[in-house]
Amino acid sequence: MASSLLTRQLAISLQQNLCLAAPGCRYVSRTATKTVSEFEYDAPSMKTAVPGPKSQELMRQLGEIQNVGAVHFFCNYEESRGNYLVDVDGNRMLDVYTQISSIPIGYNHPALIKVMTNPNNVSAFVNRPALGILPPENFPDKLFESLLSIAPSGMSRVQTMACGSCSNENAFKSMFIWYRNKERGYASPSEQEVGTCMINQSPGCPDLSILSFMGAFHGRTMGCLAATHSKAIHKLDIPSFDWPIAPFPKLQYPLEEFVRENAQEEARCLEEVEDLIVKWRQKGRPVAGIVIEPIQAEGGDNHASPDFFSKLRNIARKHGCAFHVDEVQTGGGTTGKFWAHENWGLDDPADVVSFSKKLLTGGYYHRDELQPDKPYRIFNTWMGDPSKNLFLSEVLNVIRRENLLEEVTRSGKALLQGLYALQTQYPHILSRARGQGTFCAIDACNDATRDSIMLKARNKGLFMGSCGEKTIRFRPALVFKEYHVHQLLNILNNILAEHK
Amino acid sequence: MASSLLTRQLAISLQQNLCLAAPGCRYVSRTATKTVSEFEYDAPSMKTAVPGPKSQELMRQLGEIQNVGAVHFFCNYEESRGNYLVDVDGNRMLDVYTQISSIPIGYNHPALIKVMTNPNNVSAFVNRPALGILPPENFPDKLFESLLSIAPSGMSRVQTMACGSCSNENAFKSMFIWYRNKERGYASPSEQEVGTCMINQSPGCPDLSILSFMGAFHGRTMGCLAATHSKAIHKLDIPSFDWPIAPFPKLQYPLEEFVRENAQEEARCLEEVEDLIVKWRQKGRPVAGIVIEPIQAEGGDNHASPDFFSKLRNIARKHGCAFHVDEVQTGGGTTGKFWAHENWGLDDPADVVSFSKKLLTGGYYHRDELQPDKPYRIFNTWMGDPSKNLFLSEVLNVIRRENLLEEVTRSGKALLQGLYALQTQYPHILSRARGQGTFCAIDACNDATRDSIMLKARNKGLFMGSCGEKTIRFRPALVFKEYHVHQLLNILNNILAEHK
């Protein structure tokens, strides 16, 4: 069902584009400067329980084609605006999960609609190129103006990919290639290596490993999955690699109240990392790279200190392993910095930084040495999608123009303060409130309570995500303001007050 | 540089959309019914050697960001039309490689531009959903009208993915899950399985394998790569799995002249397949699935007979392995059937059929039993991209309206006849012409000659692809007509006549 509201909005936008050439057109810049708060709704508005009857009927239809066990409800994206997601039954919810944290500046942001209606952009959507062999004329410019304008410290090279898993898989591959090139002294591979790699055997396909952390999530293709250890359902029945898995620090919150205890826990984990690197080298599966999230997300919103990451980075350097920071979920401004690793204050934070979700395209940055020595080693048909880079450029413009990182910091403080207040008020239900920017979380006393709170909240117009065993995670868009924080806290408070 | 031609074309299209509501607008249907032949150029037109000076300058710029060793030249996609690719130096080439076989109906097809300028479609581009949890209202309808309208025989289920590698990785995963569920009698996994899978160990992460073929290409993420055996540069330095690799038949061409010899060769390979299945079961790594391309593409355009595939499918059934047909390159009409496996004439051709490229979205069809028993087992953030489904629906409309499969069959016959004539005329240079539809190939006497012919052709306005060791592959769009075949053959003939 086409939305009349959006259609009207778009018709205006199309007319504005068409009158660009006409002198004195007073509508041209209005769409561009309109902020999302002028554009969006004021509050949630609920008409049925969720999923409503229309969602249920569509679920039945889709169930003929796919497993729909994970579907929450069906959406009317045309009518959704800013922080508010509208479903097919006309329910309008404050969305603090944002398509698993992948909507950067809210639904139907006018700036993004403008990208769609700019005639100069049509070709990028209609003719998807094989970027690795036949890039479009503006490709270097678009990379400079989008991804390279936000490159992590020490990195001037970036490779786009289609999704988060492909980004991490190819980052792993570039670490393996880099590691083996070092080992063979940058000489050409031997005939034996060339021969054995064709039949999956060592030394051509060497027994190298990636060290990952318990609780980590890096994706679901088979390389990424071997570094993922968040939930059994992701990994069960899929063959894997014998790679080392270190403990991720289990910290106590609020962090500032448990400085000494947390430092001890982090020291224990770092010691284990070094032990594992030595052990795996001894058993003939040397660690080519270490991969870690700045905050473990899917695994339960687990934090560690800047000191931990700084020391881990040094351990990687000391043992000749590449250091890969997976910012697929933490990147894009949600922690109040564009990259979560900026909070560590390091000039040389990583060898590889991967991204996806809020960046709208997958990919990874890397230091110069990590660039493959030959073409076609890191390659596939599409290698990303230039139409996503167009949207990303505009998202970055909006972030800068509307100072959204400051906004995130402000809203994040209000959100965390509110969560502290709630857990003080309901200590038998909630604990361990934690967060950076709006990347916040709180634990329920058990998974059943967590799930019950989430369902009640949804029926009252607040859509949240879960992670870990009993955690609620908050992943609003960057346009989530203090005003929305108070809406969220009010709904949560009402539910908790009624909770038995 | 924005193209004035395209901008004009688009401005007209936008105006047409805007006047949809106005009565009696005589432009509305013109764009829709315009065929690509009315729209495109007449012939190649060359201004510089390729890559020209502008491409070289852009290559230098992009070289600061990425390895550009695989870049041929930079393109002006705005000015490209139908079968003709225009580069940034103003060279216009007949393109029979089409972005590694991924452009289905030519550049800037008016029908696809119309998708972009339809206000009802904007939301699908601007709000990319997490399809697995919050699908849009029209998602089941769009799947029925696009992917399910072309579903392979026996399959009514489809899962979209972002690219070819993700499609094959997830198809492999669904075969592993299916296989283990069978093995445990559809009972719940044991505590030991749930525990061990979290640390990458058996039995939770079982020692299962996928049987693939020498010369195969199934993608470059680590699961796919373990089933890929086309070129060493793809696999070198990347850890892999101990999975069985069977020989793919090495047939003699033309197929109809070597029926007996080829049947013997195919029997030899099938015998080896059965031996490997038994051997890998004995060594504790049972074959959960067999994966094969209907025509090995990247590996050198290697064909096999319908009888071979039919017997292979029976072997899979006999040994309880899933049978996965990878149609990422062969699918989408290029062989004259929508799926290459239709040429086998089987009612039950496969358990899984994967696709990408010309389908514009990745994904795979599967039989009911291959659907995972629980949600979140086959899952990721985006699980495809509904905006690609919109384009695919329109591509399918064009294929039907313009009878493009018949066109492909006609052009393919003309192309293959022409290649036969050329190899007869230049037997010291060319041999082994082969093909199905326009999915054609011919071998040069060695790789240096092949590469030299391709570069000369490019400078004369014919852009082709290579595969295998010394093969030229033809992968035109479905709008490639007999008229274009003659252009191609004329250029090739001129080059061969001059070839020393």
From TrEMBL, chains A, B:
Pfam families: Aminotran_3. GO terms for molecular function: (S)-3-amino-2-methylpropionate transaminase activity; 4-aminobutyrate:2-oxoglutarate transaminase activity; pyridoxal phosphate binding. Its EC number is 2.6.1.19, 2.6.1.22. InterPro entries: 4NH2But_aminotransferase_euk, Aminotrans_3, PyrdxlP-dep_Trfase, PyrdxlP-dep_Trfase_major, PyrdxlP-dep_Trfase_small. Signal peptide: none annotated. It is an enzyme of class 2 (transferase). One of its GO terms (cellular component) is mitochondrion. It catalyses: 4-aminobutanoate + 2-oxoglutarate = succinate semialdehyde + L-glutamate; (S)-3-amino-2-methylpropanoate + 2-oxoglutarate = 2-methyl-3-oxopropanoate + L-glutamate. One of its GO terms (biological process) is gamma-aminobutyric acid catabolic process. SUPFAM superfamilies: PLP-dependent transferases. Gene3D superfamilies: Aspartate Aminotransferase, domain 1, Type I PLP-dependent aspartate aminotransferase-like (Major domain). Keywords: Aminotransferase, Neurotransmitter degradation, Pyridoxal phosphate, Transferase. Its cofactor is pyridoxal 5'-phosphate. Belongs to the class-III pyridoxal-phosphate-dependent aminotransferase family. Catalyzes the conversion of gamma-aminobutyrate and L-beta-aminoisobutyrate to succinate semialdehyde and methylmalonate semialdehyde, respectively. Can also convert delta-aminovalerate and beta-alanine. PANTHER family: 4-AMINOBUTYRATE AMINOTRANSFERASE, MITOCHONDRIAL (PTHR43206:SF1), AMINOTRANSFERASE (PTHR43206). Homodimer; disulfide-linked. This is 4-aminobutyrate aminotransferase, mitochondrial. The lineage of its organism: Eukaryota, Metazoa, Chordata, Craniata, Vertebrata. The gene is LOC107685926.
